[in-house]
Amino acid sequence: MHRLYIGLGSNLGNRKALITEALRLVDLCVGHVERISSLHETKPWGFQSPHPFLNAAALVTTRLSPDECLAATQRIERQLGRTRKSTDGQYHDRTIDIDLLHYDDLHIHTTELTLPHPLIEEREFVRRPLQEIL
Questions:
Q1: Buried b vs exposed e over 96-129: b needs ≥16 C-beta within 10 Å?
Q2: Which of 18, 31, 89, 117 is the most buried if burial means most Cβ atoms within 10 Å?
Q3: Domain ranges of the chain
């Protein structure tokens, strides 16, 4: 089994319910959710919006590869109403965002996936929840 750490965020709709449902779907489609941080309300990072985020982190044990985890979490995002991804540093409001943060001790850098996530240290809204479950 592999240890996958994910970050979750939502700033549209019923944020708590969306994160809860995302975690249920992760448990169903990616692997067993072992630990979940508390929820943290934060200001949007990288863009202006009147809608604050709820953020959390989770530890998932999985048999899936990193690429399979990415594909599964992106399907979950679409299922929960996310219609566009952030590209080239252009961020937007979103119903749900699921980021792969760490996968075992792997270091991956492809056009589709970089692990560990390259912006963890810049994002307190990721670091704080992640520290709770490490």
A1: bbbbbbbbeeeeeeeeeeebbbeebeebebbeeb
A2: 18
A3: 2-133
CB 41 within 8 A of CB 53: yes
Joined tokens for residue 62: 């999985």
Question: Is 24 among the catalytic positions?
Answer: no
Tens digit of pLDDT for each residue in 1-41? 999 999 999 999 999 999 999 999 999 999 999 999 999 99
Q: Is 94 a catalytic residue?
A: yes
| 127 tagged catalytic | no
Alpha helices (H) in 30-118, listed in sequence order: 66-79
pTM: 0.93
- Among residues 3, 27, 93, 99, which one is catalytic? 99
CATH class of 2-133: alpha beta
Cα dihedral value 89, 87, 12, 99, nearest 10: -90
Q: Is 45 left (phi over 0), alpha (psi -120 to 50) or beta?
A: beta
